[in-house]
Design brief:
single chain; alpha+beta; Nuclear Transport Factor 2, Chain: A; 6 strands
């Protein structure tokens, strides 16, 4: 019987070696056909939709690279701390996103749920020129220091 930590190690390897080819081939071995995936910009069911999200990522950014910093699991649930670096096509700037993912595996040891938690305000919206200034003002007003 496969343990959650074995699934998490496989998951770690998948994401640290992510490529357009792994999206097409390896996703079939790791994800349930009815996978639920959620991040700050997407909420979808199904392996085909998940592959579409990652195809979109590869089409719109350069050199995306996940690094899994830590993971832990128990029974059928696991948590991964990660960082994603990539370059913007427009100007070549390198960006970094740090986040956590909660995954759940089904009775076939396939990932049936993947929910990402990361701060889109910090990593995306604050980088938009006008919007970034507005968010900075709001943050300053809400801060206790």
């Amino acid at each position: 019987m496969t343990t959650i930590n074995e699934v998490l190690e496989t998951y770690k390897q998948l994401f640290e070696n992510l490529s357009p080819q792994t999206v097409e081939e390896d996703f079939l071995q790791v994800f349930s056909p009815d996978i639920y995936f959620k991040d700050p910009f997407n909420a979808t069911y199904g392996l085909t939709q998940l592959q579409t999200i990652f195809r979109h990522m590869f089409a719109n950014v350069l050199e995306p690279k996940f690094r899994i910093l830590d993971f832990a699991g128990n029974q059928n649930r696991g948590f991964l701390e990660w960082q994603l670096t990539f370059k913007l096509k427009a100007n070549g700037d390198t960006l970094l996103i740090k986040g956590m993912s909660k995954i759940q595996i089904n009775q076939h040891n396939l990932v049936c749920s993947h929910i990402d938690y990361w701060d889109s305000g910090e990593y995306v919206y604050q980088k938009v020129p006008l919007l970034g200034r507005v968010i900075a003002m709001i943050n300053k007003r809400l801060s206790s220091t």
